[in-house]
Amino acid sequence: MQLICHHSPFGANTEQPFPTPIFTLMAIYIGSIIYKIYNDSGTQGQSKQFTQSDRQQTTGSTSSPNGVATRPARTSTTANKSPASNGLWTVISGIPTPGSWLASIGTVLVNIILVLMVVDLTFGPKWFYPSRDLAFARVGFVSYNSAKILVREPSSTRLPIALEYRLQPEQHDDTYRDWTLIATTSSLEPNNDFTAAFSIPHLIPETRYEYRTSTNHTGIFTTAPSPGHVSSSSGTFTFLHSSCLIPNFPYLPLRHHLSIPGFTHLAKLLPRLNAHFMLFLGDFIYVDVPRRHGTDRETYRREYRQVYASPDWPSVSDSLPWIHVYDDHEIANDWDKNTTGVYHAANDPFTHYQASVNPPPVRDGASYFTFTQGPASFFLIDTRRYRTPFDGTDGRWDNASLPFEKRKSMLGSQQRDDLLSWLGRKEANGVKWKIVVSSIPFTKNWRFGSEDTWAGYLGERRVLLDAMWDAGEGGYGVVVLSGDRHEFAATKFPPPASGEHPPGESASVGKEEQKVLAGRKWSPDVAVHEFSTSPLSMFYLPVRTYRQEDNEDVVLKYLPDGNSKFGAVNIREDGRLHYQLFIDGKEAWEYSVELPKGQGAKEGSKGWKLWSR
Question: For the region Disordered, what residue ranges are annotated (predicted)?
Fold first, then answer.
C-alpha cells in the first residue's frame, strides 16, 4: 500500500524518511526553547526595571495632597499564577515556563529521552548487533525419510564443518546408538554468507533423531509419518503457520534489541502441540521498517542474521523444523517489480538461509515448492516474483480476445499451470487434503490495500477456485493458508449454485471460457476455506478493513487484535481438519472442516485444463 504500508504505521516505503522528521522537530523544539529562555530573561529584566520605576511613580501619586491616586499599581499576571499551575502547563505543553524550572527541565528531558528511544529502535540493531560472527544450525524440511540442516559458521579456523546424526538415545549415556557422518564441507564462504545446507537421507518414518556439527551445534528432529498416514502415537498430523515478525516490538528500551516476544508465546505452547513443522508465510524480516538502511546484499543478509541471532530463536527451533516462503518485506513494500531492482540482492539471503533447506522446488530455478507429508499435499506459491505489476484494476478476465499470457496474473503462466496441474492430480492413498500456501490473502474481503492481495487478480483467482472445487468433487479438501495483514480472518468460498457468476458481478472470465464452464455445478460441500493468520510478533491494526460485501467470500471469523498470532492445523485419522487459533499465547478460536463427500470428477469438470493450454 502506498500510504505508508498496509501493515505498518511507521513507514515502509523505500523512500520513507523516518525518523528524519522526528529529528527535525526535535531540533526546532530545542531551538524554540533556547529562544524562549533568552527572550524571557530579557523581558524579565525590562519588566523589573519598569516595575521599580512604576513603583516610584505610584508611591508619589498616592501621597498626593488631595488623596486621589493618579495611577493604580501594576501587577504581574505571571506572578499571579501558582507554581503548581505553571508546572502543570509545562508538563502538558512541553513548553518551559519561568518560575517552574524543575518541571521545565523535566519535560525537556522527557522529550530528549523519547527521541533517544526512537534512535535506539531505528539504529540500535544495526549498530550493536550486525551479527557477522553468528554461528548456528537449524532444521529445515523434514520428510518421512530425509531431513535438511542449515549451518552457519563464519570462522575459517573451524573449517571443515562435519555433520553427524543418530537415533536419539533413550538415555544420556547410551553408547549403542553410534553417530553416522553425513558430510564434511569447507564451502562456507562470503559468497553464501558462510552457510551450508546438509541433507540426511535414508531415515525411518516417525522416528526421533538428533544431529550435531563439528562446531558443537546440536538439535533434534522427528521424521514425518509415511505419505497418507497420520502420527501413529497421536492419531493426528499437526503443523503450524504464521507470518510477519520484527525484533523488539512492542518496543521496550531495556529489552534485548533482538528479542522477539512472539517466540516466547510460541515456545510455551510447542510441547502440547506436537507440531511437525512451522510454515512461515513471509515477512520473516522487515528490511524497510522502521527505516531502510540500504539496498545492498549485506543489508538484507544482516536482517536475516539478526532474527537467527535472537536470544528467543533457539526456543522455537531446537525441535521444530521451519519452512519458508517470502513476501514483500523481504524485498520492498508491496513488491510487484518481478526480478528487477533490489530483487537479486534481496533473494540472495533468502536462497541461502531459507530456500536451501526448503522442500524441493517444483522445477529447477523456480521459487515455489511442493511436498507431501502425512495426509496432506502442499503447494507453496510465490506471489511476488511472477506477478503482473499494479494497474489499478481488480484483474478480472473479462476481455476474451486478450491472450492468456497477457492477462493480469499473480502467478505467471508457468506457476499457474503447475498449480493447476497439482490441484488436478491424484494423490497417494490416504492423502486427503490439498493445502495452498499463499503469502498474501486469497480473500477479497480486506478493503484497504486490496490491490496487493488476490483482490487485485480476480480473474486468475476464479480460475484457481474452479480447479479447487473440482478437486473437492474428486474427494479432496482444499484449504488456503495465508498471512500478511496482521489480523486473523477465516473465510469460506462456496461454489456458485450453477456455472454462472453471481448476479450483479461482471464475469471474471471471458465469453469463451464461460461457454466451457456453462452448466457446471459443484456440490456445496466442496467449498474452499482460507485461514489468514498474522503477525507472529508484530503490531496489529486498530482500523478494521475486513468485511464481507457479497456471497463469494463468506466470513467465518474475524479477530484482528493481538500482537502475536499463529494457527495450528490438525488433520485427524478420520480426515477431519481441525483449526486452532492462538493469540498472545492463548487459544482464541477453533473450527473444524469436513472432507467433501467426493462424488468423483464429473464429465467436463476438469475445467482447469482450459487454463493450462
Answer: 46-84, 492-514
Order of strands across the sheet with 136-142? 136-142, 147-152, 195-200
3-state secondary structure of 408: coil
- Residues 509, 461: Cα–Cα separation, whole Å: 10
* 500 C-beta neighbours (distance < 10 Å), count: 14
Contact 62, 69 (CB under 8 A): yes
Give the H/E segment covering residue 85: helix 83-93
What whole-number distance in Å separates Cα of residue 600 and Cα of residue 610? 19
- Residue 250's identity, in one-letter code, is P
Cis peptide before 17 (omega within 30 of 0): no
The b/e string for 202-212 (b: 16+ C-beta within 10 A; e otherwise) is: ebebbeebbbb
Question: Residue 92's pLDDT is what?
Answer: 73
pLDDT of 175: 57
Helices 297-308 and 343-353: angle between axes, nearest 10 degrees = 30
- Identify residue 80 by its one-letter amino acid code: N
Model's pTM, two decimal places? 0.87
d(CA 313, CA 152): 15
Q: Are β-strands 477-482 and 528-533 bridged in parallel, bridged antiparallel, or unpaired?
A: parallel
Q: Cα dist. 576→376, 454, 554, 571, 572 in Å?
A: 12, 27, 21, 6, 5
With contact defined as beta carbons under 8 Å apart, do 556 and 263 qualify? no
Residue 67 exposed, middle or buried by CB count within 10 Å (0-12, 13-18, 19+): exposed
Q: What does the pLDDT read at residue 600?
A: 53
Provide the sign of the torsion angle of the four alpha carbons 563, 569, 570, 574, taken in this order. positive
- Distance between CA 46 and CA 183 in Å, rounded? 86
537-554 b/e (C-beta count within 10 Å ≥ 16 → b): bbbbbeeeebebeeebbb
What cell was used for 17? 524518511
390 class by beta-carbon count within 10 Å (0-12 exposed, 13-18 middle, 19+ buried): middle
Q: In terms of Cα–Cα distance, which of 125, 122, 240, 141 is closest to 536?
A: 240
Under DSSP, the state recorded for 374 is: T
Q: Chain-centre distance of CA 378, in angstroms?
A: 20
- Is residue 583 helix, strand or coil? strand
- Residues 373 and 227: their CA atoms lie apart, in Å, by 5
| pLDDT, tens digit (0-9, with 9 covering 90-100), for 421-453 | 999 999 999 999 999 999 999 999 999 999 999
Question: How would you list the strands of the sheet with 180-185, edge to edge?
Answer: 180-185, 161-167, 208-213, 218-222
Q: Give all strands of the β-sheet with 577-583 in edge-to-edge order.
A: 322-324, 278-280, 236-242, 565-572, 577-583, 586-593
